[in-house]
Write a structure and sequence with these properties.
Length: 234
C-alpha cells in the first residue's frame, strides 16, 4: 500500500510541496507511486524481519492469555463465582490442608457472572494487578504505527480478533481494556484515512491524456470499518 501524505522539512509552502511530491508519473503505464515507507516495506523481506503489527499481535496473544488465566485463577482460588458449588469460607473449611485444595483448569472462557457483587470484586482484583497494563499496551500500539501508519490495519485486526470471543463471558476487565485501545486507534486511523483521501484529491496526473485525479483512487467504499476494507483489499 501507499501513503499519500508525508511530512516535509524546511518548507514555506506545504501545499505546493505536497502536491509536487504526490505527482504521479507515467512510464508506459502509470508508474508505481513513490511511498515514504518504501524502505520499511523492503526490510520485511529480510531474514528475521517482521512487520510491527505482527510483533504487536504476538505480544497481544501472550498478554491476553496471561490476563485471562490470571482472572480464572482468582475466581477459582477465592471462589468468586455463583456457578461454583461453595463460597470461599466453605472451600477453606472443607479443605483445611492447603495441599488438598484443588482448582479447575485455568484456560478457556467462562460465561457472564450473574452476581454483580462478585463481578465488582473480580474487577477490583484485576485492576489492582494489571492497572499498569492499558498504558503499556497503548505505548505498544503507538510504537507499532509510528514508522508506518498503515500498520494500524493489522493492529486493529489483532485487537478485533481477540475481542470477538469476549462478549458474553466474565472477562470484563480484558474486554474493556481492548475495547478502549481499539476505539482510540480506530479514531486515529479514520483521521489518517481522511488525510489520505484529501491528499489523493489534490494529486494531479501530468499526462495530456490523463489529467486530474485518478478515478479509481478518488472514491473509497462507504463503510464504518475502513481499515477492514483496506486489509481485505491489500
Amino acid at each position: 500500500m501507499t501513503v499519500f501524505t508525508a511530512q516535509e522539512k524546511e518548507t514555506d509552502n506545504v501545499a505546493v510541496t505536497a502536491a509536487r511530491k504526490l505527482t504521479v508519473k507515467r512510464s508506459q503505464t502509470l508508474a508505481k507511486i513513490r511511498s515514504p515507507t518504501g524502505d520499511h516495506l523492503k526490510n520485511k523481506n529480510q531474514d528475521g524481519m517482521i512487520n510491527s503489527h505482527e510483533a504487536f499481535a504476538g505480544a497481544l496473544t501472550e498478554i491476553y492469555n496471561l490476563v485471562l488465566k490470571e482472572q480464572n485463577f482468582i475466581v477459582e482460588f477465592f471462589q468468586m463465582s455463583s456457578q461454583l458449588p461453595q463460597d470461599f469460607s466453605e472451600f477453606i473449611t472443607n479443605s483445611p490442608v492447603a495441599e488438598h485444595r484443588r482448582i479447575g483448569g485455568l484456560g478457556g472462557l467462562r460465561p457472564v457472572e450473574a452476581d454483580k457483587a462478585k463481578v465488582k470484586m473480580v474487577s477490583d482484583f484485576m485492576t489492582g494487578l494489571f492497572g499498569f497494563l492499558p498504558q503499556d499496551l497503548q505505548s505498544l500500539v503507538e510504537w507499532a504505527i509510528r514508522a508506518d501508519p498503515l500498520q494500524g490495519v493489522g493492529v486493529l485486526y489483532a485487537l478485533e480478533t481477540k475481542m470477538a470471543a469476549l462478549p458474553d463471558t466474565d472477562q470484563e476487565f480484558l474486554l474493556k481494556m481492548l475495547q478502549k485501545l481499539h476505539d482510540r486507534l480506530a479514531g486515529l486511523f479514520s483521521r489518517f484515512l481522511d488525510d489520505q483521501i484529501k491528499a489523493i484529491e489534490e494529486t494531479k496526473v501530468k499526462i495530456k491524456k490523463r489529467k486530474g485525479v485518478i478515478p479509481f483512487m478518488k472514491v473509497f467504499p462507504v463503510s464504518d470499518r475502513p481499515w477492514a476494507i483496506l486489509k481485505a483489499r491489500y
